[in-house]
Amino acid sequence: MKNNSQSDRQKFIRQAITSAFILQAAIIGIKGNLDVLSGKPALDVIPWMITQGIELIVKTHRTRKSVEKGDRIKKDRIAQNPDD
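Request: output the structure for the sequence above.
Response:
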């Protein structure tokens, strides 16, 4: 029961993180479109959008690595102490 609750919580947290990254990507696109529609030159907006997109990709990669590392540590602990 305890493991199932932790598993459900971890699944929820992963879904929340994924949703947050998707929302950030959508916001980058919307803001870029609004900037162009408000008269800012596309040559200024596009590099900003690319920079923001790259930062988001790096952030998601780091988060994924961190989550995978945490999963590995938990699996190692379970393997060492199967009765806990």
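The chain has two helices and no strands.
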